[in-house]
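User: I'll paste a sequence; please echo it back and then give the predicted structure.

Assistant: Echoing your sequence first, then the prediction.
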Amino acid sequence: MAITTDRPDVFVLPAMSAAIPVTQDVLCILPPDGRDDPAAIIESHRRARAQRSRQDTAGCLVPLSIGLVTAVLCLAALGALASSTFPRSARLLVAVVVFLVVSSAVAVLVDRRQRRRPPVQPLPVTPIDPRVARLAPGDLPAAEVIRASAVLQALDRARVDLRKGEHDADLTDAQRTVSPGDRSTWFFRPEDLAGLRAAATSAREEATEFLRSTGIPLEALED
């Protein structure tokens, strides 16, 4: 029997969450010592996302709107008061400069104002791994659900590292060269491969032992 929201400690966090950037709803569980209820957690994420949305809107639309209105008023004023002094091209250039200056100034002011407001912090959540939700006994205690999800995710990370290590081991030294200042690109060394294999084996053994002890089918280990 799958783990579902029929349990009082299991709930669904909507996909549009402030903390979990996913495209689908996430099944979560309250830790055994959790002090918050599902409604409070979901509401905290809704409020945090609403605040972020308002800040994004204000940071984009407010400077553009004020800059555009100011530029139009400037263009109208120059056209009415100095049309003979400033040709049309000059008036347009002045309006563009005014738009850029005002928009930039307003953007700085909006950003400073937003920084002074304390951000809404969403309450922490404990997602259930989909494999655990699908295969674990429906009455499995929360602590074991959380541990099973953790060991499967650790196994996934070890497998990903091993695959990358095997790929990187086939690269030449020149191909493993990273540009100075580039912190987003990294490679495993050939000598790391043995450790990665040992870590993946250890993670699989730990996951296998724990799943057997909790009655979760070992098909959850399938990559």
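The chain has five helices and two strands. The first strand starts at residue 10 and ends at 13.
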